Amino acid sequence: MSKKILLVTGDAGEGYELLYGYHRFLEAGMRPTIAALARKRLNLVMHDFEAILIMGGRAPEYLRHNRKLIELLQRMNDQGKWICAICHGIQVLVAAGAVKGRRVTCYEHVRLEVEMAGGTYDTRQAVRDGRIITAQTWQSHPEFYREIFSALGER
Length: 155
Prior knowledge:
Blueprint: E1 4-9, H1 15-27, E2 31-36, E3 51-54, H2 59-63, H3 67-78, E4 82-86, H4 90-95, E5 103-104, H5 111-116, E6 120-121, E7 126-129, E8 132-135, H6 141-152
Parallel strand pairs: 1-2, 1-3, 3-4, 4-8, 5-6
Antiparallel strand pairs: 7-8
């Protein structure tokens, strides 16, 4: 059975990041599901998904206040699922307490939030620390998706 990946976005989300990711997962034979929280409630069965990817743009500024999303992310993290974020998506990981003690990257203007939450900011385009994979911007797509597909191919 193909792996299911949850792609999370919202109002003011980065459309290019979302569509690019969606199509990359389809090409890899996976089953991406888009959850745009402003349009659809987050009533998902967590164990159905191998990974969650929080998209960037300005949406995470609002998504980080969604209690259901934060709880879902925390449960997935506790269960060792893959947690991915690009650009401002790191703000949701910060709100969920997932960056403390981790080396991550993100859009440079949210670096301070990472550091204040106990994470270490890395200047590389894409960073993997344990089961958390992060990237800076859409310009990081090649490195980011190579890291994601490598991780998802592991047992």
